[in-house]
Amino acid sequence: MKALAIDSASSCITFTAINEKKTASLSLNIGMHQSENLIPGIEEVMKKTGLKPETLEFACTALGPGSFTGLRLSFSALKAFQLAYSIPLYGIPSLEANAYPWSFFSGAVLSIIDAKKNRFYAQVFRNGQACSEIEDTETENVLSLVDIEENVLVCGAPLDVTLFVEQAKSFRPTQHFTVVNGISHSSTFSLLELGQSKYLKKEKGFPEYEGPLYIRKSEAELNLINS
Asked: Where are the alpha helices (DSSP H) in the chain?
């Protein structure tokens, strides 16, 4: 496999490049400073693996939901590769990518992304299958997606997971949470595995005219509506 993946759905942007048996990942928890680190991040992981842009088989990115700015940045960068080298670009739903490594888990897998304003993007998976729609809601409402007696594995960017569990315990102190932390690179490996599956099936890449999945309006759009 010769491929590149970027997950910029949260404040922690992650890059992974694979060149056959060589793999390099970089994770930067830099908040609003993603734009100036996007190209250097891509260059670093590609250089470490010896991966040349013209040899890429495919690229993949988190489709959303997530950070408006982050999603736009990764899509713009990878669409440039798509157009320049005629490779497919695959967009994988962000919450699906987070949950993918935990399909073996016997309880509920709760995939979350901090949506700011005391809200989370959330979706529940069981046995690798989505069991709920993508939600954009408060912590208490997210908890209504799972049974109070079941073991819940919470996955996502480490800071997002920590924030959610801290809030969730105030509503459900007896709920058992399995917290997945310290694995910030896993989402891009999920993107690559899911992208490779699409590539081997010869699925078409993301259409040039389509963009990320947004389930709420941006601040700029809201300001325009309210002005």
From this structure: 35-49, 68-85, 94-99, 139-143, 158-171, 186-200, 219-226
Return the closest-CA partner of residue 155 out of 7, 45, 37, 38.
7
Q: What sign does the dihedral 192-197-200-205 (CA atoms) show?
A: negative
Q: Identify the CA nearest to 187 among candidates 110, 120, 92.
A: 92
Q: What is the mean pLDDT of the chain?
A: 90
10 Å Cβ neighbour count for 201? 7
pLDDT value, residue 225: 47
Q: How many CA atoms lie within 13 A of 197 on its CB side?
A: 7
Determine the Cα–Cα distance for residues 68 and 217; give it in Å rounded to an integer: 9
Q: Are 126 and 92 in contact (CB under 8 A)?
A: no
Tell me the angle at which helices 35-49 and 68-85 cross, rounded to the nearest 10 degrees: 50
- Residue pointed to by tokens 């992981």: 45
| Domains of the chain in sequence order | 2-94+184-226 (3.30.420.40), 96-179 (3.30.420)
> 60: how many CB neighbours lie within 10 A of its CB?
31
pTM above 0.85, yes or no: yes
Q: Which residues contact 179 (CB under 8 A, 6 or more apart)?
A: 154, 161, 162, 165
Q: Which residues does 220 contact at the CB level (< 8 Å), separation at least 6? A: none
Quick one: pLDDT at residue 207? 86
Question: Hey, is 33 helix, strand or coil?
Answer: coil
